[in-house]
Structure formats: structure tokens, C-alpha cells
């Protein structure tokens, strides 16, 4: 049984790397894997604060920023964060950090760690590609929000949290285009592909590790279910 977790950079490295979170998350992952030898875990790690800081520096440094160049900067931040997460789970993750999910055919350990691939989408899309390759039907998307809202709650005081939403309704909210650094609960490009594949995505707060444990155990949880 393979479980895919899209581990948002905003929780791994909100400004810089969060060693305490990485330690606690690793302990939870180890405990969950130890309960059943058939379990395998794919972690797809985002760029977080370093990606945003370096992308902003690029935009401030040039008159006409290039979208692909900006994406590559963010991708490199995801790869550094992913290498850190892999190192924390080194004995369970013998393979190199995956940077091209379309080329991976072997899962040799208990944990596989992936990072950004190429411009045009976020690491959420990488998670969808890996879910398809290794037969996972649900992606757990961990970020700095506990639920998807009807609008940005920081901008709209009338925004309401959503427990469950269809792909059609979710995609109507987030649109169909990717912009480097876009802040959406799940990447629009990834959402389109997930809908095509019939995948489900659970969006939840990444720092709430007891809640993550409930999700992994199939118990009631706080979050938003997108899709089936």
C-alpha cells in the first residue's frame, strides 16, 4: 500500500528549515510505517519560504522577469528541502531524491522523496504523477491551512471552510493556469490531472501531526476532501 503526501514547503521551511517539525514528522512517519510492513510512503516536498524569497529577489533584480526562470528558482528550493527530508529518513529511503517523476519505475525502500520537476506547475503535479505511477488513489496535501475556504479568509471575512468539494467546483475556484509562486490549496494543473485520473486529495494543516496520524489511520480528521 502506497500513500502519497504532498509536504508543503510552508511547513518544512516557512522561512528557513524547521528542524523541530522535521524531527516530529519523521518520528510519525517511522511509527506509521512500523505498524505494517506493506506500507510505503512517497513524500513530495515544496519550496516554502526560501523559494518565495529567492523568487522575489529575482523579480526585484530584473525589469522583465521570465516565468520559467522564476519557476526554476522555486524548483531548486524544493530540491534542497527534499534533500533535507530524505536525510532525516535516510535508512528508509535508499533512492536519490526524485526530480523527474515520469522516469521513476522502481520504489526500492519504504520511503521515496521527490522534489520539483520542471516549469509549468508546482510539486502538487509531481505528487499526482507519482500517485498514478505507484497506484495511490488519494493524495494527502499538507500546507499551512487547515481547510479549503470558499475565498481567501485573509481577504474575505465571509469566507467559509469547506469539508468536501467536487473537482469541478474546486477547479472553478482555483482556475486553470499556473503562475510561479501561485498560492492555491492545490495547483490548478495538478487538479486537472487528478480529476482526469479520478484521484482524491485531502487538504489539511501540516503542522497538526495528530490530525495527520488520524488521516493516515483512516479516522475522522479536520480537513477538506476534494474529489470522490
Task: Produce the secondary structure layout.
Elements: E1 2-7, H1 9-12, H2 19-34, E2 40-45, H3 48-61, H4 67-88, E3 111-114, H5 123-134, E4 138-143, E5 148-149, E6 161-162, E7 164-165, H6 167-174, H7 188-197, E8 200-205, H8 209-217, E9 224-226
Parallel strand pairs: 1-2, 1-4, 2-3, 4-8, 7-9
Antiparallel strand pairs: 5-6, 8-9
Helix pairs in contact: 3-4, 5-7, 6-7
How many beta-strand segments? 9
Largest sheet: 7 strands, mixed
Give the % helix: 40-55%
Strand order of the largest sheet: 3-2-1-4-8-9-7
Report the oligomer: single chain
- What would the principal axes of the Cα set say about the shape? globular
What is the succession of H and E elements?
A: EHHEHHEHEEEEHHEHE
Question: Radius of gyration, Cα only, in angstroms?
Answer: 17 Å
Alpha plus pi helix count: 8
Parts with pLDDT < 50 across at least 5 consecutive residues: none
Overview of this protein structure:
This protein has 228 residues and is of the alpha/beta class. It has 8 helices and 9 strands. The protein has helices spanning 9-12, 19-34, 48-61, 67-88, 123-134, 167-174, 188-197, 209-217; strands at residues 2-7, 40-45, 111-114, 138-143, 148-149, 161-162, 164-165, 200-205, 224-226. It starts with a strand and ends with a strand.
Amino acid at each position: 500500500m502506497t500513500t502519497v503526501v504532498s509536504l508543503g514547503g510552508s511547513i518544512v521551511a516557512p522561512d528557513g528549515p524547521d528542524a523541530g517539525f522535521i524531527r516530529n514528522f519523521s518520528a510519525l512517519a517511522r511509527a506509521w510505517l512500523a505498524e505494517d510492513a506493506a506500507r510505503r510512503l512517497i513524500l513530495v516536498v515544496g519550496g516554502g519560504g526560501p523559494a518565495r524569497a529567492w523568487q522575489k529577489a529575482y523579480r526585484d533584480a530584473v525589469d522583465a522577469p521570465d516565468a520559467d526562470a522564476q519557476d526554476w528558482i522555486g524548483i531548486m528550493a524544493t530540491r534542497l528541502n527534499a534533500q533535507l527530508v530524505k536525510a532525516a529518513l535516510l535508512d528508509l529511503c535508499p533512492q536519490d531524491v526524485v526530480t523527474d517523476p515520469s522516469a521513476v519505475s522502481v520504489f526500492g525502500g519504504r520511503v521515496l522523496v521527490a522534489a520539483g520537476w520542471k516549469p509549468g506547475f508546482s510539486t502538487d503535479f509531481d505528487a499526482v504523477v507519482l500517485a498514478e505511477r505507484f497506484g495511490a488513489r488519494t493524495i494527502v496535501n499538507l500546507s499551512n491551512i487547515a481547510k479549503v475556504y470558499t475565498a481567501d479568509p485573509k481577504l474575505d471575512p465571509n469566507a467559509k471552510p469547506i469539508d468536501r468539494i467536487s473537482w469541478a467546483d474546486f477547479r472553478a475556484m482555483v482556475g486553470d493556469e499556473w503562475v510561479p509562486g501561485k498560492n492555491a490549496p492545490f495547483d490548478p494543473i495538478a487538479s486537472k490531472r487528478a480529476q482526469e485520473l479520478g484521484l482524491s486529495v485531502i487538504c489539511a494543516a501540516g503542522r497538526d501531526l495528530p490530525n495527520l496520524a488520524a488521516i493516515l489511520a483512516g479516522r475522522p480528521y479536520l480537513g477538506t476532501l476534494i474529489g470522490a
